[in-house]
Design brief:
Elements: H1 2-5, H2 14-28, H3 32-40, H4 48-78, H5 92-103, H6 112-140, H7 147-176, H8 186-197, H9 206-238
Helix pairs in contact: 2-4, 3-4, 4-6, 6-7, 7-8, 7-9
């Protein structure tokens, strides 16, 4: 891509991607701790069941609210190789209007079912694995609750997430980017892939997917931990003794 289209091609669809991440992350990550506490009723002991349930809940909530941003992001990335008049969408707002006009409002929520499944799986694997790896490192190694521990936990969470979520991710992307009427459902899309391309089709693009999820997890969790720590320190200073 860099050789044929230039370095800027790696950032095509950036605006749509930012819209998606800000809307998704604010719900699925920002509400995770609160939902986890709700399911445990404030108990300090948090079992894996409560963590999984909280991850599924916030993942599904994020999709319900932000699915249009994901549809637009996928469409933008799919037209990355086209230029000029052949481009179907010329901006994110133009994409929202075009999809709504040509496919109806439901077109903006195309693939919601597989996306809910995908985000429930990703959210559970990402957040729960990070929690479990971090707890294990703090218990079994000399690491403290600081940057090296956060980095290692996030990298491990990214790898586990890629293994678990890659099949759903491939189906979701294929279905959301399909022509109208090409597949009657996400299950039909998955069955067609399995019969025509074999099981390995579900792991196409594994390495780029791992690079994306691995780097995303490292940046997200390390930033999240530092921001959380800074906000708690500010809150403690603000509260009078």
């Amino acid at each position: 891509m860099v050789r044929t289209e230039g370095p800027s091609s790696l950032y095509k669809g950036l605006v749509a991607g930012l819209q998606r991440q800000m809307s998704f992350a604010s719900v699925r990550i920002g509400l995770y701790d609160s939902v986890k506490q709700f399911y445990t009723k404030g108990s300090e002991h948090v079992g894996i069941g409560s963590r999984l349930l909280a991850g599924c809940t916030t993942g599904a909530m994020a999709v319900a609210m932000a699915q249009p941003t994901d549809v637009v992001k996928v469409r933008f990335q799919a037209q990355a190789s086209t230029t000029g008049a052949s481009r179907r969408y010329h901006g994110t707002m133009h994409a929202y209007r075009t999809i709504a006009r040509e496919e109806g409002i439901r077109g903006l929520w195309k693939g919601t079912g597989p996306n809910i499944a995908r985000n429930a799986i990703v959210n559970c694997t990402e957040l729960v694995t990070y929690d479990l790896i971090k707890d294990a490192l703090l218990r079994s190694t000399p690491m403290t609750d600081d940057l090296p521990c956060h980095f290692t936990s996030a990298f491990g969470a990214g790898f586990c997430t890629t293994i678990i979520a890659s099949p759903v991710d491939v189906v979701k992307t294929r279905y959301m980017n399909s022509a109208h009427g090409q597949y009657c459902s996400a299950f039909n899309c998955a069955f067609t892939m399995l019969t025509k391309e074999g099981p390995t089709a579900f792991y196409k693009g594994f390495m780029p997917s791992f690079l994306r999820l691995g780097s995303w997890n490292v940046v997200m969790f390390v930033t999240y931990e530092q921001l959380k720590r800074a906000m708690m320190a500010h809150h403690n200073r603000a509260v009078p003794l």
